[in-house]
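Q: Hi! First time doing this. I have a protein sequence and I read that you can turn it into a structure. Is that right? Here it is:
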Amino acid sequence: MELFSGRRLAFAEPYVSPVHILRSLAATACAGPFMLTNEALAARREGRIGTMALLSCGCTAIVWALALGVVLIAIASWATENLGSFEFAG
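A: Yes, that's right. Below is the predicted 3D structure, encoded as structure tokens:
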């Protein structure tokens, strides 16, 4: 996503926009852990958050990525089960 837009992945334009709500939700759901990590690292470099807050953001990003993986596996499993149930009459 960063390569296509030429901007750092973050909770800001062009990734998150009140004008494009569905696109923003999809981008946040899929790339949210990376956005959170980038924002936390930037805040740490600027001195806005401490080490414990950075660790908290890191743990949250890991849990978020794991939960996203579980959801994607469930969707893929559901999709493959439903694809097998279609019958083609020829």
